[in-house]
Amino acid sequence: MAKAASTVVLYPGSFDPVTMGHIDVVERCLKIFGRVVVAVLKNPQKEPLFSLRERIAMIRAARRWPQNFSVEAFDGLLVDFAKRKRSNILVRGLREISDFEYEFQMALMNRRLAPRIETVFMMPKTDYTHVSSRLVKEIAFLGGSVKGLVPAVVARALRKKYTNQ
Ligand code: PNS
């Protein structure tokens, strides 16, 4: 436990936008690890709905975060960023078995690239196992309610993007 308390973990992703599932994973990490850095990918291959700045601002505004939490942008290889941050633990959320194949492949590839870096999986609360950034955007685009699926700041931003309200 003492070791975990002094450990810096990276929680990487596109966060386009951050959902309650992501927030739940961060909160679980904060209970276990000494420092949590959310690492937001600068240039996802898919064109993001929200700019890097917007994605970062929404994560920061989602909660009153403790001092051992931070959000940073990264590009290039995740393992290179982890080395720069002196972190040897990557955290990924696992919602359902369908996530597993992609996550398993990515974890093993990252291990091949950087054998000292481990990937740790966290399961979010079951209320959020069906929540994804992609579905949240689709619901908001089609005029549905995303209340409870995303932080209030994200719900407002989605409304603004899609309806200009
Ligand atoms: O939220 P996402 O889109 O599922 O996150 C994917 C992410 C950002 C973790 C992944 O695409 C990534 O690590 N990209 C950085 C480039 C990299 O290191 N690629 C090799 C992964 S094995």
Note down, in words, how this protein is organized.
This protein is an alpha/beta fold. It has seven helices and five strands, in the order αβαβαβαβαβαα. It has helices spanning 2-5, 20-32, 52-61, 78-84, 97-113, 133-141, 152-163; strands spanning 8-13, 35-41, 69-74, 89-93, 118-122. It has a five-stranded parallel sheet with strand order 3-2-1-4-5, sandwiched between helices. The longest helix has 17 residues, at 97-113. The N and C termini lie far apart (48 Å). The model has no long low-confidence stretch (mean pLDDT 95). The structure holds 4'-phosphopantetheine.
Poorly predicted runs of 5 or more residues: none
Q: Can you write the helix and strand succession as a string?
A: HEHEHEHEHEHH
What is the mean predicted local confidence, pLDDT?
95
Number of strands: 5
Spatial separation of the terminal alpha carbons: 48 Å
Query: How helix-rich are the residues, as a percent range?
Result: 40-55%
Largest sheet: 5 strands, parallel
Q: What class, by secondary structure content?
A: alpha/beta
Give the amount of beta strand, in percent: 15-25%
Strand order of the largest sheet: 3-2-1-4-5
Structure ligands: 4'-phosphopantetheine
| CA-atom Rg in angstroms | 16 Å
